[in-house]
Specification:
Rossmann fold; 2 domains; binds adenosine-5'-triphosphate
Length: 356
């Protein structure tokens, strides 16, 4: 009896046939590789089906950075598409931010993934869209606020690339850890508008290109990518010293070490927040200059770009009175105060000059 119990203890707790290869962080079960692949992929399939993420015949772009999450996403989605006959046309979409020694290398990975998974790849670049690479932006703005430029520009670049590919939806590799981190950051910033939508699995359904996050509940992609020997790029961005986000990430990792379920609990807490009906939410419109969605006259990318092009790179990010006045005026009226408006434009490319 005692012997039998020990033998069972050494077998996979799902199939009871093979030796366990890992302890699942999510459930703490000891399972074998084959059962891990099956439950990992099946959970993503269930999330896709329960949330009605796709319809047969849709064209879907996977936002592919070459990193672990988007590589696993491209791989798993193409497997599930075949296995369950979703009927999707899948594409890879990459944004080249122009970061030498980082994005050029990760794009090489995506180019290999294009061949490995048989998915057509489209690359859009900041240089073509905005006239600036991140290397050039960092030279004028330094390392402190560059992530603001990169985040704002990437968001639009993905939408513009998706429009060029004529896809119906864009999927990103944001995972449970990313989402828990964003919930926490929005609480810390008191950003009610973002908090209310940051846990949605699908956003922008009323905009040009809905986005979804099939990995919303997934946090074992490291193990999956490692076991499957997927070809991904694992270096951190050379310009990302975002200390605040870094602390939030470490805090969540510490919580996960003590109680793995904490990640899913933070996401559920975010989902359960209700916005008081008396809270005024921003009205959505379109940017006067480039036509992108915006709650102000000019979208954030156009304000940042105007600052770069006029040699006022802190416009829209700095908290100095001058920069706040300038960016508020630009956001609200589409015009700069006289002194700044008279500065010569250094580069005249409007934001996102690709068809949208
Ligand atoms: N340059 C890019 N091109 C295309 N998609 C991107 C790019 N950067 C980020 N994304 C998308 O946004 C998601 C989250 O971005 P994040 O910065 O966490 O990516 P990462 O850590 O570089 O890579 P990954 O999330 O793939 O491991 C990615 O999973 C990917 O879908």
């Amino acid at each position: 009896m005692e012997e039998g119990k020990r033998a069972v203890g050494r077998l996979c707790s799902i199939c009871s046939q093979r030796r366990p290869a890992l302890k699942r962080p999510k459930t703490l079960e000891q399972i074998c590789r084959e059962c891990f692949y099956a439950v990992f992929e099946e959970e993503i399939h269930r999330v896709i089906m329960e949330n009605h993420l796709f319809k047969a015949g849709e064209r879907i772009a996977v936002a592919a950075s070459g990193g672990k999450d988007s590589t696993v996403l491209a791989y798993v989605l193409s497997e599930l598409n075949r296995r369950h006959d979703y009927g999707l046309d899948l594409f890879l979409l990459s944004v080249d931010e122009g970061i030498t020694g980082y994005r050029d290398d990760s794009l090489e990975t995506v180019k290999r993934n294009e061949i490995q998974y048989g998915l057509p790849l489209k690359v859009v670049s900041y240089k073509d869209l905005y006239g600036w690479t991140m290397d050039e932006i960092v030279k004028v703005i330094g390392l402190k606020n560059n992530c603001t430029f990169c985040g704002v520009f990437r968001r639009q670049a993905l939408d513009r690339g998706a429009a060029l590919l004529k896809v119906d939806k864009l999927v990103t590799g944001h995972n449970a850890d990313d989402m828990a981190e964003t919930v926490l950051l929005n609480i810390l910033r008191g950003d009610i508008a973002r908090l209310s939508r940051c846990t949605f699995i699908m956003t922008g359904e009323d905009g040009p290109i809905p986005r979804c996050k099939p990995f919303k509940y997934t946090y074992e992609k490291e193990i999956y990518a490692y076991f499957k020997k997927l070809d991904y790029f694992s270096t951190e961005c050379i310009y990302s010293p975002n200390a605040y986000r870094g602390f939030a990430r470490e805090f969540i990792k510490d919580l996960e070490r003590i109680r793995p379920q904490a990640i899913l609990d933070i996401i559920r807490s975010g989902e359960d927040f209700r916005i008081s009906s008396s809270t005024r939410m921003p009205d959505q419109g379109t940017c006067e200059r480039c036509g992108y969605i915006s709650s102000q006259k000019l979208c954030k990318a156009c304000v940042l770009l105007e600052g770069l092009n006029r040699g006022l790179p802190k416009l829209g990010i700095s908290r100095t009175r001058e920069a706040i006045n300038g960016s508020e005026r630009l956001h609200k009226t589409g015009r700069l105060p006289k002194a700044e408006a008279e500065r010569p434009i250094l580069q005249s490319k409007p934001c996102g000059n690709l068809e949208f």
